[in-house]
Specification:
Blueprint (H helix, E strand, L loop, with lengths): L2 H6 L4 E5 L5 H10 L3 E5 L3 H8 L10 H10 L2 E4 L10 E4 L14 H13 L5 E4 L7 H14 L8 E4 L18 E5 L2 H11 L6 E3 L3 H32 L4 H8 L23 H11 L5 H26 L10 E4 L14 H11 L5 E4 L5 E4 L2 E4 L5 H6 L2 E4 L8 H7 L3 E3 L14 E3 L5
Parallel strand pairs: 1-2, 1-4, 2-3, 4-5, 5-6, 7-8, 9-10, 9-13, 13-14, 14-15
Antiparallel strand pairs: 6-7, 11-12
Helix pairs in contact: 5-6, 8-10, 8-11, 11-12
The chain binds nicotinamide-adenine-dinucleotide.
Nicotinamide-adenine-dinucleotide (NAD) binds next to α5.
């Protein structure tokens, strides 16, 4: 049976390499469509957890995962032995940057090498990890072809289809967010689209992997640039005084066309928006091109934790204490609202740079994050009690989790630095609040 026949008759088997924020929800979607799905991850804790029916990703329904594993539709392995039995293999491994902010595609390369050794005719490999244009054709394809002696388009298929999942977003999920697919050949595109249509409501084919790789970077860099714009304006509003940047954005957002609201904050984090501008800048340099505008936006956003640190220092300097002695209590260390992901979290960055500068009485609360390491020191989430708020010289709202009772926070804290406009609906005790982008 050809791959197309297997897809049409739903007799295909799917493998997902990398069972993190992207891979596990995708695996659960395929398994819940009645397709036998195997997850592969080098992290044995994740593999054991799945095989025991235990979920570890907020976006995945605990009960759904448990029943899929029990039924045998979903299983996980810490090795690549099953590759030969799979028809479709998605690669969802990390794409971080190096300490010098250059792309690190070593996870893609390693995963591809493991697959290449076991590749057989008729399979399709779909790369989902965010990466720079030409990764699929310039890196993945040669590894697969060389080790297997098979040829893409003739013996097996290869496509790039970037992931768009927004962890914590209840409205837009894996199932209802359209995705883009670019195959190495038209048939690769067609087959990758057919496979994706099992789990995604709308699939948009493009002319090839490079367009799909570039469009994903455009999506994320678009966010980076627009967030940098409002972060710069927020600093200007602070400097001028008397203009609330949040109100400015809300007012501009009443324009029904040509404007899209973005909000200031303590910086950007996560595994995408912070990293992706550097992936493109690195590639551009190879073509004697400097992505000045994009790099400036990334720098503006990376400066925001330093800006928040300055806000904290300014408030502490008005108190009968020093930065070293001040008790600073952070609310929220996840990189954004209602998630447990702390990768490149701006909140952690603020804590790190304060800690490095001698501020040692730092503490935090985060309902989603039990503990963190700041410059090698372990901190555990503290109870968000009236006593903890009252005891702090300064409370900094770094992540606006929706479970927080902001009225309770403001009524108990002496001084609040709000970097997210989380206290916008609080009417009482506003004189205690210093809002980023409000000129106070
Ligand atoms: N998290 C998001 O919101 C998001 C959204 C869109 C795109 N992406 C992109 O998707 C990719 C994956 O991101 P993520 O957030 O799921 O990462 P993650 O760190 O949550 O998960 C990646 C998984 O891959 C595993 N892994 C690493 N090397 C492996 C190997 N050689 N073989 C098998 N497994 C391996 C890791 O153990 C981990 O479980 C990245 O390129 C990211 O930029 C992420």
């Amino acid at each position: 049976m050809t791959l197309e026949q297997k897809i049409r008759s739903k007799q295909l088997t799917v493998g997902i390499v990398g069972l993190g924020y992207v891979g596990l929800p995708l695996a659960v979607e395929f398994a819940s469509k009645g397709i036998k799905t195997t997850g592969i991850d080098v992290d044995q804790t994740k593999v054991k957890s799945i095989n025991a029916g235990k979920n570890y990703i907020d976006d995945v329904d605990d009960e759904k995962l448990r029943s899929l594993v029990k039924k045998g539709s979903l299983q996980a392995a810490d090795n690549y032995n099953s590759i030969g039995k799979l028809d479709v293999i998605f690669i969802c491994v990390p794409t971080p940057f190096t300490p010098n902010k250059e792309p690190d595609i070593s996870y893609i390369v390693t995963a591809t090498e493991h697959i290449a050794k076991r590749l057989r005719k008729g399979q399709i490999i779909i790369l989902k990890s965010t990466t720079f244009p030409n990764t699929t054709e310039g890196y993945v394809k040669p590894i697969l072809e060389k080790a297997s002696k098979l040829k893409v388009g003739r013996d097996f298929h290869l496509a790039f289809s970037p992931e768009r999942i927004d962890p914590g977003n209840k409205k837009w999920t894996t199932a209802n967010t359209p995705i883009v697919v670019g195959g190495v050949t038209p048939e690769c595109t067609q087959l990758a689209c057919m496979v994706s249509e099992f789990v995604v409501s709308k699939v948009i084919p493009v002319s090839g992997p490079k367009v799909a790789e570039m469009e994903k970077l455009l999506e994320n860099i678009f966010r980076s640039v627009n967030i940098a714009l409002v972060n710069e304006l927020a600093q200007l509003c602070d400097r001028m005084g008397g203009i609330n940047m949040w109100e400015v954005v809300e007012a501009a957002a009443t324009k029904p066309f040509g404007f899209m609201p973005f909000y200031p904050g303590p910086g950007i984090g996560g595994h995408c928006i912070l990293i992706d501008p550097y992936y493109l800048a690195w590639l551009a340099r190879q073509h004697d091109f400097q992505t000045k505008f994009i790099t400036l936006a990334a720098e503006t956003n990376e400066n925001m934790p330093f800006y928040v640190k300055t806000m904290i220092e300014r408030e502490v300097s008005k108190m009968p204490t020093s930065l070293r002695a001040a008790k600073i209590f952070f609310l929220g260390v996840a990189f954004k609202r209602d998630v447990d992901d702390t990768r490149h979290s701006p909140a952690l960055r603020v804590m790190e740079i304060l800690h490095a500068d001698g501020a040692k009485r730092l503490s935090y609360n985060d309902p989603h994050v039990a503990d963190v390491k700041i410059n090698g020191t372990r901190f555990t989430s503290q109870k968000l009690s009236a006593a903890a708020l009252k005891g702090a010289d300064c409370v900094v709202i770094t992540t606006d989790h929706s479970s927080y009772d902001y009225e309770f926070v403001v009524s108990n804290a002496k001084r609040i630095i709000d970097t997210r406009n989380a206290t916008k609906n609080i009417k009482k005790n506003r004189d205690r609040i210093v809002l980023l982008g409000d000129g106070v």
